[in-house]
Amino acid sequence: MAGQTATDLATRGFVVAGTGNATTKLDGTVRLSFGVNGIAAAYTLAAQFTDPILTFVAREDAAVDVTVGSAFQGLVAADAVTLDPTVALTGPEGCKPVEELLAEATTAPAAAETPAAPPAEG
Question: How distant is the alpha carbon of residue 56 from its chain centre?
Fold first, then answer.
């Protein structure tokens, strides 16, 4: 399924860096994982799917990872994608502004270090 989705996205002009299998199962249609520099690309890509889950992750590059889920039926019809470059992006209901996400990311407590194991005897 990943290979066909990659081919379909490439046909629509998206750059596909590679494909692979996810390590966990996704019950929805598709999850798009992206960082601060991939927001516009993620929302552009999201228009190609039905009910995508957009997930903000800690990454600096502009890449967007696409995880196809068990409910995925294919891309929406190309003529149904309605993107207008003159209209500002708007997030879905409940979406946090990126400034809030970044503030949370920089103020989150650091993970506690795991103490080293005592040296083995013998």
Answer: 7
Over residues 35-55, the mean pLDDT reads 92
Looking at residue 84, what DSSP letter applies?
A: -
Domain regions of the chain by residue span: 2-94
DSSP string, 34-49: E-GGGHHHHHHHHTTS
Residue of 51, 50, 33 lying closest to 42 (CA atoms) = 33
pLDDT of amino acid 113 = 43
Select the more confidently predicted residue: 53 or 118. Answer: 53
Return the structure tokens found at 81. Answer: 């994608």
Strands 30-34 and 52-56 turn out to be parallel
- Long-range own/partner contacts, residues 108-114 (CB < 8 A, 24 or more apart): none
Confidence of residue 97 (pLDDT cuts 50, 70, 90): confident
The H-or-E segment that residue 103 falls in is helix 98-107
